[in-house]
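# step 3/5: fold
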Amino acid sequence: MHLEDNLICKNFNKLKGELKILDDLVFDRDGNNVALSKNSFAENILNGSDGFANIDFSGFKPLFERIQLIINDFDSENN
């Protein structure tokens, strides 16, 4: 049972041990499966599906800029 939302996980083996990402067999109170795999999550963002169209990724900008610096540095050393 989720601590805040009304969700239940039916895969008890996934609940053992350290905190896990649950991507299947998570149901709401009405029995609807509300879990998404990472791939489905990414496809929803890519397609701008309802509830995913306005996600703000600006917090990742420093990470992407750092990765670009690493790529540029690698390219300059290998050319």
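# step 4/5: annotate
Residues 43 and 49 are 8 Å apart (CA to CA).
# step 5/5: archive (pending)
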